[in-house]
Amino acid sequence: MIADDDEKWLAAATAAVKQNAFYMQRAIDSNNLKDALKFSAQMLGELRTSKLSPHKYYELYIRASDELRSLEMFFRDETARGCSIAELYELVQHAGNILPRLYLLCTIGSVYIKSKDVAAKDILKDLVEMCRAVQHPLRGLFLRSYLAQVTRDKLPSIGSELEGDTETHMDALEFVLQNFTEMNKLWVRMQHQGPTREKEKREKERNELRDLVMTVGKNLHILGQLEGVDLVVYRDTVLPRILEQVVNCKDELAQCYLMDCIIQVFPDDFHLQTLDVLLGACPQLQPSVDIKTVLSGLMERLSNYAASSVEALPNFLQVDAFSKLNHAIGKVVEAQVDLPASSSVTLYLFLLKFTLHVHSDRLDYVDQVLGSCVSQLSATGKLCDDKASKQIVAFLSAPLEKFNDVVTILKLTNYPRVMEYLDHDTNKAMAIIIIQSILKNDTRIATADEVDALFELIKGLIKDFDGLTDNDEIGEEDFQEEQNSVARLVHFLYNDDPEEMPKIIFRIRKHILTGGPKRLPLTIPPLVFSALKLIRRMRGGDENPFGDDTSTPQKILQLLTETVEVLADASASELALRLYLQCAQAANDCELETVAYEFFTKAYLLYEEEISDSKAQVTALRLIIGTLQRMRVFNVENRDILTHKATGYSAKLLKKPDQCRAVYECAHLYWAEEGENLKDGERVVLCLKRAQKIADAVQKMANASRGASSTGSVSLYVELLNKYLYFLEKGNPQVTGETIQSLAELIRSETKKAESGAGTFITSTLRYMEFQRQQEDGGMSEKYQKIKMEWFE
């Protein structure tokens, strides 16, 4: 309803302005001064309304002020035709109402100044004083805005056509400052005029005025563009006068707006040279002023100044800008006891960005900012406010983004202290950011002390604390992703120095073992492989090449034994078995027979006691057999014991086909390429025959349960045939053509009984055998010639 009334009133006033402007223009065209003044006064009389909102009044003002340009040109033409400008100046003052009279006076005044018939300072002083007659806030603001507009290019500043002596120039400066002061008083008065229930409405209207025409700030823009306002004038006159008005008005909106205007309008070097004066006003502002916006704007502007001008950097050091800003922020935080944590952190965030731009080589300054933030946060404890937590993350991320080097961050003693104030989830998020920085920039953490410092920063990902467990709070997929990041990190904790790297391994282990059973299966494996890599580097040296008894391969392997035991206790027996076997291979490479045997013993115990699932047993047994087959460090007795155990496990698998495959894989344990003492052809054939007996049993059971249509164990027979061919080619004298011929005949017989489900496998095997028979190199062909192939047709 109010909006509709606003539109009606604006439409009526606009129509009246148009009508009177039309008659005014007709009078101008006919050189009728009397009617021109009459209709212009009637047109300007529409601005006396109190019914319109600031937004609608602004539209009306714009339309009326546009029409006054024609009147200004008419006044200029009249003086050119011989009319006395002084008489015109007196004539317009006979207008019946004060507001039209003053608009006309400002219009003719601008022409009067341009004529140079009188000192500009006298006209300016006259106009600014007479405008005091309008004390209605809205009408007075727009009147003075019009005054600033028409006199802007007519001020006697240095370099202008109206330039006078120094005193005249200061008079122009005084005019702008006085107009600014009066406009600010009117703007503030709007807040206190009217009933209390309409306070919010008035505040909204004031904001509209600020955003629409910058009525008050327009004078500061004029000051910023005056050529005569140098650093001395700004420091001694302009800034003190403006700050006096800002502080004394005691209005939240005005103070925030005007401080922002000061920062944006005047040159950067002015701010730098008067930093202590500008910062000194900040604690005097109202507690409700959004001081973080003011100071952050100032620091951002100074940072950009430093980034754009290398020559300016010495000036920052000369005025000690960092110390002044740091001290000022401390004073503001101290003065505004109700300042939210997010706002205080934002202040220190912009101070940190300023420091990183201007003093990127001064880590002590960066650490000092972090320490100041810690001092402020110490009164609040852990942050529960999401906004404040996000600001802390941005605060901690700023040095990371600047240096792109976590090693540099580790030198900041206050960095982990800031992280202490983050809640559990945000602490983890920050830890992930740190890890991602290391991975992205390929940063190497090369000392044990740096490892300790790093794990202190990311401890939220390493262990549970405060009675919280990650897997209860987040999804399994997110948890896996977090821990995978930690696992990748371990490979970046590395040093080529063989004395330092063992220390790094020990420190990593100390931190990782603090994780719960959910984490260990994801974080222990990279630690183990990092240690194994070190062990293989150490292989071939002296017994103790590093002068440290804890840094020998044997000692590190002993450490890994204890580490993997922890994993076995965390219900990750299958993974622990794999790691035991990996460690056994490393011990084999270092020719540590006793250690390797111990790892195999532990792997066998895990297999017997912890692994009960049939599929897991098959997988584990294949790993055991494959690893044992590559071991060369064992003497005959130890190898026989381990081989016998593996063969025994194979025969005890739940499913017969699995038994068959495991037993024929055990044949490889009796035949190794290196060394004649590792070749036992009889035992190889014995394993293969035992596997064939199991395959026969599988075939009988299949025929009994499913009839002749079953392919039964034909595929097992073909697999066995391939094993026989392998050992035939490797030169096992116990593998004869008759044995292979017998097995091939059995395959043909079983294939005829059933639909061939293994036809492709059989065909490929037979084709390979025929191919080898036809080779002309002699050696391999002779072996295959012993096998009769008539059945192939």
Automatic annotation (TrEMBL):
Biological function: Plays a role in vesicular protein sorting.
InterPro entries the UniProt entry points to: Vps35, Vps35_C
Keyword Protein transport: yes
Family: Belongs to the VPS35 family.
Membrane topology summary: Peripheral membrane protein
Pfam families (alphabetical): Vps35 (PF03635)
Subcellular location(s) of the protein: Membrane
Gene3D superfamilies associated with the record: Vacuolar protein sorting-associated protein 35, helical subcomplex Vps35-C
Keywords: Membrane, Protein transport, Transport
Protein name: Vacuolar protein sorting-associated protein 35
